[in-house]
């Protein structure tokens, strides 16, 4: 029985071979497909604004940047992806959550900092939130990379 099944299987393999390639089809309509645009945005220390009071619960930093390429069409039908570039030259997708630790006269302390973004037509906003809401010191300069696809 095994030999019969093996013979049938072998015969099917040879019968199912592909024939010659046919002629190339017509050219598709122009203008369809994926388009993309990439931009580097640098947020300096002076660009960061504090929402709330220093060290107030739920306080965070944000920075608004114009992005004229983020049209209504991209907003409605496209995709927006953002990365943050670390000081070691590595890009990380956002949101980026970093766990941190420090030491002072009172001992060790721990917190988490989160970089995130949102957008609207013509504008992108970057956020920096600290889990301990210690917002006495402004964040430094950060480099973001934004990719628009439609």
UniProtKB/TrEMBL annotation:
Top-rank taxon: Bacteria
Name of the molecule in the record: Lipoprotein
Organism: uncultured Dysgonomonas sp
Organism lineage: Bacteria, Pseudomonadati, Bacteroidota, Bacteroidia, Bacteroidales
């Amino acid at each position: 029985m095994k030999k019969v099944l093996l013979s049938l299987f072998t015969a099917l393999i040879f019968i199912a071979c592909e024939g010659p390639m046919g002629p190339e089809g017509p050219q598709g309509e122009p203008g369809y497909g994926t388009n993309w645009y990439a931009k580097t945005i640098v947020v300096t220390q002076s660009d960061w604004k504090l929402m709330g009071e220093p060290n107030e619960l739920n306080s965070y930093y944000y920075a608004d940047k114009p992005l004229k390429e983020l049209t209504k069409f991209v907003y409605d039908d496209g995709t927006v992806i953002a990365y943050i570039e670390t000081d070691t030259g590595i890009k990380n997708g956002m949101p980026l959550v970093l766990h941190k630790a420090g030491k002072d006269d009172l001992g060790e302390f721990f917190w988490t900092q989160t970089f995130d973004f949102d957008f609207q037509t013509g504008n992108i906003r970057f956020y920096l939130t600290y889990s301990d809401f210690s917002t006495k010191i402004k964040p430094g300069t950060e480099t973001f990379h934004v990719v628009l696809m439609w």
